[in-house]
Amino acid sequence: MTSVLRGVLRNSSVLKNCVKPLKPLKSLTPVSSQTRSFGSTSLLFEDIKQKQPQTYEEEKVIIDEMIKNSTPEDIQASKRMRNIGISAHIDSGKTTFTERVLFYTGRIKAIHEVRGRDSVGAKMDHMDLEREKGITIQSAATYCSWDKDDQSYHFNLIDTPGHIDFTIEVERALRVLDGAVLVVCAVAGVQSQTVTVDRQMRRYNIPRVTFINKMDRMGANPWRAIEQLNSKLKLPAAAIQVPIGAEENLQGVVNIIDRVALYNEGPQGETIRKAEIPEELKDLVEEKRLLLIETLADVDEEIADIYLEGEEPTVEQIKAAIRRATIGRKFTPVLMGSALANRGVQPVLDSVVDYLPQPNEVLNTGVEVHNDGTETPINLVASSAAPFVGLAFKLEEGPYGQLTYIRVYQGKLKKGAYMTHIKSGKKVKVARLVRMHSNDMEDVAEVGSGEICATFGIDCASGDTFIGQGSKQIAMSSMFVPEARYIFKYCSKDKGQRVHSQKP
After folding, report:
1. N or C: which end of the chain has fewer CB within 10 A?
2. Mean of the pLDDT values across residues 211-224?
3. 466-496 pLDDT, tens digit each
4. CATH number of 364-476, picked from 1.20.58.1480, 3.40.980.10, 1.20.1050.10, 2.40.30.10
């Protein structure tokens, strides 16, 4: 058992009142999926997966029709929203990257580092053990706003663990997200948990942009990392940036689409200065730009036609092709920089806006459960006017009882409203509704379609569906449950603690 897991168990308020845990079982029974019962029916993750369209082209036909029938208000609200996760192999720098995202978006006023750098610690690592070990143990949610082209965009962001022992936290997060930023170390490249995260993203059809971090480290090689993305992950990838300098001489990046150099200035890299491309990089920029176009031509018909005709696509055509191919899960654009050195983070936020899907560009499905036990596949509409449908994806024991994280897929959820727990059929009141900023809570009156929120006092399990008044009996799939890393058994001496510990 790893030292980190021992620390988690040692710091658990439940286990402190327990007898000594039993030794791990020698024969483990793999758990491949999670079951949720609805009367006489049960719903597996694979069940709904098989009922969904099998290609993105099939999905897009349905998505386009749904957007066509949406109100202008819903379209505008969805256009300015992104639900993203930050995922990576352990120690690739994703929490450091997330800290810069929160700072540059104005969500926090000062940058703090992980273990050993100051006495505060990164905002998203709020557990004492996380700050002691310098790793992320449980996923943490927040939200922030990013301004681009005189428009303000709302990001719901989840920072996920990189350690395999806590991979279920990644499953829970990716189940409810629309896109992701995959962070890869410029020195180590694609590692074992990078492959695992890629598999998880494919399971939930998550498009991603890739950020090659730690470009200021000795031995940094972004081109090797990109080659590994193509060869190990079998995912077409191409750089949309070229670094200006490397290792200790990293100064900025060149955007090869627009052919402009970007330099981070200011005490913490908060200001972006645009300039001409350095003379010594012009040939490399043109080489990588051509490679980008050739890679896009392999996955996008419009660029392929332009390329075969011997013409050069415009900046707008290249960006549109990257967006189509990324959302279609055929390609990932690759950016680079160093979060710790405050280089190259803001362009990643621009890429989230430009290339990752808005909520109404993702096909979310469920099944309508009829009284006779039969099920009919149904598509959820990203509209605040539709009846409420939400999925509880994470449970957390808080100071006010069980904290339940919910992704709203359809309709609105209001404070004081009642929603029905589809598994038990019980109505529950939303007594308090909050948005989470790591371990801080901000009360809200309501949240709309596409949002992530949390509430208290609800008896449910992760993966359970909730519906509002006027909704059909809709059930969504739970998340995939990977094979257990460790299994142990304990018996609590405190009966009250025993009840709490039985919840998933």
Report:
1. C
2. 95
3. 999 888 899 888 767 666 666 767 677 776 6
4. 2.40.30.10
Which residues belong to CATH 3.40.50.300 in the chain? 57-355
For residue 222, give Cα distances in angstroms to 190, 213, 247, 264, 279.
11, 9, 11, 19, 20
Phi-psi region of 194 (alpha: psi -120 to 50; beta: other; left: phi over 0): alpha
The ranges of the chain annotated as CATH 2.40.30.10 are 364-476
Token digits of residue 430: 């939303």
Tell me which residue of 98, 333, 117 sits closest to 212, measured CA to CA: 333
pLDDT tens for 94-138 read 888 999 999 999 998 888 776 545 566 666 555 555 555 555 556
3-state SS of 272-309? EEEECCCHHHHHHHHHHHHHHHHHHHHHCHHHHHHHHC
First to last CA, the chain: 21
Helices (runs of H) and strands (runs of E) counted in the chain: 14, 26
Helix (H) or strand (E) holding 232: helix 222-232
- HSE-CB for 376 with a 13 A CA cutoff: 8
